[in-house]
Structures are given as C-alpha cells and as structure tokens.
Amino acid sequence: MNPFLDTLAGQTAEHTPIWLMRQAGRYLPEYRALKERYAFWQLVRTPELAAEVTLQPLRRFELDAAILFQDIMTPLPAMGVELDFEPGPVIARPVRSASAAAALRVPHPEEIAPFAAEAIRMVRKSTATPLIGFAGAPLTLAAYLVEGSGSKDFATFRAFLHREPATLHTLLDKLTQTGIAYLKTQVEAGAQAIQLFDSWAGLHDERAFREFGLPYVKRTFDALGGLGVPRIYLAVAAGHLYPAIAELACEAISIDWRTPLSVVRGQLPGKVLQGNLDPSALLAPRARLLEAADRVLAEGAGGPHVFNLGHGVMPQTDPDSVQVLVDHVHSYQRDQRPHGQTAEQATVAS
Ligand code: CP3
C-alpha cells in the first residue's frame, strides 16, 4: 500500500501522490550549503553525499517519492565525454562528426556509474519512501552532446540532424545501449520506478521525433519491461507528439503545463498521467498557487494521476510554497468527501 506505486499500477490511492521534478536542488538552503563545500560532480559521485541530497527534500516535505540525486549527464564520462557544469552542462569537445561519434564507447554496465548504484542502496536503507531512478532520453542527450551546452533552440543540433542523419543514428544507438544498462543497474540496486527525461523532445516535429526520438525511447522501455518497475516518460513542450508518445510501452507519461491533463487523457489511453502544475505557480501568492493546484487536481481526476510540476522546481522557489503545495494536495480528496467519510465509504457511496 503506497500511494505513488499504487497509482502507477493504475489503482486508486488514499490520496493523490505528489513528488516534484528537481525536488532536490538549489531552492533548498541545505543543498546550497553543501554546494559551498563540494563541487557538483563531488556531490554526484560521492554516494554518501548523493544519498544525503536525495533525502533532503523528504526531511522537509511529506513527498510520496524520492528521486535519486544524479544528472542526466551522469553516464556520459564513462562513454569518453569530457564535461562540466556551469551550472548547466558544458561539453569540452562537442560531437559533430562521424569520427567523433565512432570514438564514443559503450561502457560495461558496472563502469557507467557505480556511485549511483551505491547511492541508491544507501537511500533505500534510510527511507521507506519509494525511490525513482532516472536517465536522459537519447535524443535529449544527443542534443547536448552535439550543441555542446544548453541552448534556446539547439540550432546546431537541429542542423546536424538534417545534415548527418546516419551519424546521429550511430550516436543515438550508443546512448540507448548505455542508457539501458545504466537504468538496469539502478533497478538492480533498488530503484522502484524509473523516469526517462526527454526535456528537448518538443523541439522536433512529429516526423523527426518518429525517426530520431521514439524508436530509441521504445527500445529503452522495452528492455526494462521485464523488471517489474513502472516506467515514466517526460517530454517537454510535446503536445504535438502525444499521438506518437501514446505508442510507448510505459506505464505513465509526465505532462508539461501547456496542455490540461483532461485534454491529454483522451490522447493517451491506458496511461497514468503525471503533472502538470506550471513551476512558476510556486512563485505566486498562496491563494493563486492553491487555485492553480486545484485546477490540476480537478483536470487529473479522470484517471490515475500523480501530482507533479510540468517541469522542474525553479531555483528561486520558496521552500515554504512547496510545503503549502504538498500539504494541500494531500488534503484535497479528503476535503472533497462529505465530512467524516473514509476513502472506502466514499468509494462505496459513489
Ligand atoms: O531533484 C531531482 O530532480 C534530482 C536531480 C536532477 C538533477 N538534474 C540535478 C541537478 C535531475 C532529475 C536532473 C535532470 C536533468 N539535468 C535534466 C532533465 C530535467 C529537466 O530539467 O529538463 C536536464 C536537462 C539536466 C541538465 C542540467 N543539469 C541542467 C540544464 C543544469 C543547470 C541548472 C539546472 O538546475 O537546471 C544541470 C545542473 C544540475 N543538475 C543542478 C542540479 C541540482 C544544479 C547544479 C548546481 O547546484 O549548481
């Protein structure tokens, strides 16, 4: 009996579960305090520290899931990629040729990120809250590798996609093999759900997504299907891609704030929906935040729903607003039922 895992299994939970993308990070003073003592890579690569940062938001808020503190870039150094964070990822030598793609290694599973597996084991020993493992989707990782850093429109990467489609497929294949091995390692270490972050999928039209994005996400989810953990897919700004995304063999789709859950529900039959409060609502006055949260709860009510943001928590967010949101989501269903009824009585009565 766990609200997060039950909901991902398509069952009704006692309350709508809530966790937030980027719930561990810069908006928390205790994270910033650690960042004064350690570089980002040290936090990521030291299991005790990665476990500590994973647990920080759970100590403050009654979240229904933890997400492992790592980055979508975590598996790349083992492939031979040199990168740093400033604070976003910066690739020392962007991959822009067939020879650069050929030079990337597909590492042995144990070499990819042993520190992440160790951090997972430590978190599992410290909390009963379910732990989510994650990886970047191949198309999003390729966007950073080719562009060399974050970008508003990833123009270099999109030009590369048109100019060197065969090289891009080589790159995507290697990222997919590495990603599958990395995610399997996380599940073996104890991750109880996995999420694939495709933050930049929405840059592409449906044709390009069907050629360069979807097949690699499919392969990843198919490879993880036998492991018994629910699979969540996040694509940002991807309203135009939902007909394609509906074909994925995963349990849940995380929706950004641009499309109401009630609209998406019909486009994604059989899927659990996760989302989709606009992260900027957490910067709004309390009444406005709660109003926006209620709208998301109402729109999500047509089927299994895991409450989340439409994208990550912004660094300027006040932790007190997160507190207000988490408590509100947990009290929501109780408040909708006639006074004094239990969840079971309400179900029988309806
Ligand atoms: O709390 C969590 O969600 C777990 C940790 C996590 C981080 N990155 C830690 C981090 C997760 C799930 C990610 C995913 C990630 N990383 C994505 C996909 C989700 C998304 O937001 O679209 C992407 C695109 C990245 C790449 C990345 N890493 C960027 C763009 C940045 C820059 C700043 C930022 O926070 O967005 C990073 C660095 C990073 N990753 C930080 C954290 C806490 C900040 C580093 C710092 O403290 O200086």
Overall average residue pLDDT? 95
What is the terminal-to-terminal distance?
22 Å
Tell me the radius of gyration.
20 Å
Strand order of the largest sheet: 1-4-5-6-7-8-9
- Secondary structure: helix percent: 40-55%
Bound molecules: coproporphyrinogen III
Principal-axes shape call: globular
Q: What are the low-pLDDT stretches, counting only 5+ consecutive residues below 50?
A: 337-350
Class from secondary-structure proportions:
alpha/beta
**Strand portion:** 5-15%
For the biggest sheet, the summary is: 7 strands, parallel
Quick recap:
This protein is α/β, with parallel strands linked by helices. It has helices at 3-8, 29-37, 40-45, 47-60, 98-103, 109-112, 114-126, 138-147, 155-163, 165-189, 206-224, 242-245, 261-267, 286-300, 319-336, 343-349; strands at residues 66-67, 83-85, 89-91, 131-136, 193-198, 231-235, 252-255, 272-277, 305-309.
Which descriptors would you attach to this protein?
seven-stranded parallel sheet, two-stranded antiparallel ribbon, disordered C terminus, binds coproporphyrinogen III, globular, 16 helices, alpha/beta, 350 residues
Q: How is this structure best described in words?
A:
- There is one protein chain.
- This protein has 350 residues and is an alpha/beta fold.
- It is built from 16 helices and 9 strands.
- It has helices at residues 3-8, 29-37, 40-45, 47-60, 98-103, 109-112, 114-126, 138-147, 155-163, 165-189, 206-224, 242-245, 261-267, 286-300, 319-336, 343-349; strands spanning 66-67, 83-85, 89-91, 131-136, 193-198, 231-235, 252-255, 272-277, 305-309.
- Strand 6, helix 12 (242-245) and strand 7 form a beta-alpha-beta unit.
- Helix 4 packs parallel to helix 7 (114-126) and helix 7 (114-126) runs parallel beside helix 10 (165-189).
- The longest helix has 25 residues, at 165-189.
- Residues 337-350 have low confidence and may be disordered.
- The protein binds coproporphyrinogen III (CP3).
- Coproporphyrinogen III (CP3) binds at residues 21-26, 35, 40, 67, 69, 71-72, 85, 87-89, 134, 150, 197, 199, 311-312.
